[in-house]
Specification:
The chain is α+β, with helices and mostly antiparallel strands and about 230 residues long. It is about 30% helix and about 35% strand. The strands form four sheets. Strands 1-2-3-7-6 form a five-stranded antiparallel sheet. Strands 11-10-9-12-15 form a five-stranded antiparallel sheet. Strands 8-13-14 form a three-stranded antiparallel sheet, covered by helices on one side. It is globular and about 45 Å long. The protein binds cytidine-5'-monophosphate.
Length: about 230
């Protein structure tokens, strides 16, 4: 099968004119690829977590690229023309925003804050506004507003299920692509791309890896999250 592309954590293979296969690798990276390791079985955990969350979004009427699973770590997805932008929604302040702006760790955002970043490791994913995105031909203002609306709807679905699990969704990142003139949620939704904490502040997501916790502890947390997600 023809490999179309390979990123830090996933490989993309051609399936047919309308579909591609997304194979989740066992790699874990941070700092725009500066730090990298292998966690056996992580690809399966992230593929399964993403599949479950994509199905929840579809149930709530949000179009995603998800079609089904080929095997436990390989997703069948719609072939999208991906937009190289990472769209982040934040419910609570942590991560890059508390470094960039005079905002305190843990501050709540009501309403949530949506930010756009260029996917560009060499430039450390710079923040974009509507003007940058129009000039770089990434998306026009109308599309950006639509993407923001989808982010808010996705936040409702994700926050609800994560709260049923007894956990709190701090923030998440999505990527979008185009097919037949529509904007569709692509990529993945996993603990690599969202921040989840329990009410005591215990971290369950990739921040464990970013902060240097042992790999087996990172994996145990990904396993725990998927188990809790499956049982709500
Ligand atoms: O680092 P920052 O605070 O901007 O991250 C916001 C959210 O986006 C986090 O959930 C993080 O895991 C996710 N993210 C991502 N891929 C990146 C950067 C951030 O999934 N390259």
């Amino acid at each position: 099968m023809e490999k179309i592309s390979e990123g830090k954590t996933k490989e993309v293979f051609s399936l047919d004119n309308e579909h591609v296969l997304l194979r989740f690798k066992d790699s874990v990276t941070a700092g725009d690829g500066a730090k990298a390791d292998i966690i056996d079985g992580k690809g399966i955990l992230n593929a399964q977590t993403s599949a479950l969350l994509f199905r929840l979004l579809e149930r709530d009427g949000i179009e995603t690229h998800y079609v089904g699973m080929k095997d436990e770590r390989t997703m069948i997805v719609k072939r999208l023309a991906m937009i190289p932008v990472e769209v982040v929604l934040r419910n609570y302040a942590t991560g890059s925003i508390v470094k960039r702006l005079p905002i305190k760790e843990g501050e709540a955002f009501n309403p949530p804050i949506v930010e756009f970043f260029l996917k560009d490791d060499a430039r450390h994913d710079p923040l974009l506004n509507y003007h940058h995105m129009r000039h770089l031909k990434l998306m026009n203002e109308e599309e950006a507003r639509l993407v923001e609306e989808v982010m808010v709807r996705v936040n409702q679905t994700l926050s609800k299920v994560i709260s049923k699990m007894g956990l709190i969704l701090y923030d998440f990142k999505l990527e979008f692509g185009r097919v037949n003139g529509r904007l569709v949620v692509g990529d993945e939704i996993s603990l690599d791309s969202m921040r989840v904490r329990d009410p005591t502040g215990r971290i369950l997501d990739k921040d464990l890896y970013r902060k240097g916790y042992p790999l087996d502890q990172v994996k145990a947390s990904y396993v725990e999250f998927l188990d809790r997600l499956r049982s709500v």
